[in-house]
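Table S2 (text version). Query chain:
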Amino acid sequence: MSERVQRILAAGVFQEHVELMKDTSPLPLPDLSLYDELKNVQVEVPLNKVKGGYRIDAALSWYENFNIMNEKIDHLLHSIQEVGLHQYIESFQSDETTNPIELAYCDNLDSYFVISDGNHRITVAKMIGMKTIKAKVCLHKFIKDRADLKSEFNCKRKKLKEKIEMLGFWHECKNRDNINEINIYFKKQHIAYFIIPSEYRFSEGELNEALQLLNNLEKLIALYRSLPMILRRVFLLYIKRTDPNCKSIIENEFALLLKAGYFNNK
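Corresponding structure-token output:
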């Protein structure tokens, strides 16, 4: 048992509640870009509806978060020892003017999440069994269209990865300033380069272009492999002249595959 747990037990917290916190974990902070921010109000919030938030590790229990957080937890425990558990709880039932706990209320989840100051205070409140707490709450209204757009984005990203692997390629992805730089290789040969914004709201065009290029490349590969060797060169010349969408691919990505021996023995 940690020293911190011993201190709250000595202050009057029930052992049964501490055990409950070992088996209760916070939820990850939702993607707040899926919401519209409405008004801020300072209200009394039920602690059982505060589910997690900023700098609260959802992979750990509330008990574990309490034990690994920095020394701010110890300062709060010192306050409990100084004024007593009851008075400490009472101090969080009135409006805070200097440094209020800041929560987001997500209407579709009927839950609150720490979005700025307050992760230590909320964690201690959970551990000592506080029922309610005063906090500055920003109301967040869920926008389904954004959620659908994000779901579509994630689906397309998954398809892009699957397409790369299905074609026998491998890739590197670097994130710089919210931009994904994706380099695609066959063996050691660099084949293609895509720049796709990591923010789902701004990436549809670039992601569609990347998928379209790989789809066209896949069709060319399949047609090329289906032909006898004697007709392959003629086929490429014909496609270059008749299909402007594939001309650039043949001259660039496809040419690099030929150079790298992609079709050897195939």
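Notes on Table S2: The domain at 3-142 is CATH 3.90.1530.10 (Conserved hypothetical protein from pyrococcus furiosus pfu- 392566-001, ParB domain). The chain is about 50% helix and 25% strand.
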